[in-house]
Predict the 3D structure of the following.
Amino acid sequence: MVGTTVSPSWDAIAKLASIRGIRTFLNFFYRKKCGRYRRWINGYSNRNMHWKRKKMMNQRSKNNEHMAGNR
């Protein structure tokens, strides 16, 4: 790369352009996959929170029923 900046030849420029193109291509799909993974993780944690909330509400209602029965 340093040699290309000092005395660029068309061959060296073509090599750098192809490397840049390949890196751009790979980066595009990498980011796309990471985005899907991130959305999946967020969705999973949201589903988890839904079930945790539901479980807590069930426990509260059971506790309230138990307390009402003791009166």
Observations:
- The mean pLDDT is 76.
- The chain has two helices and no strands.
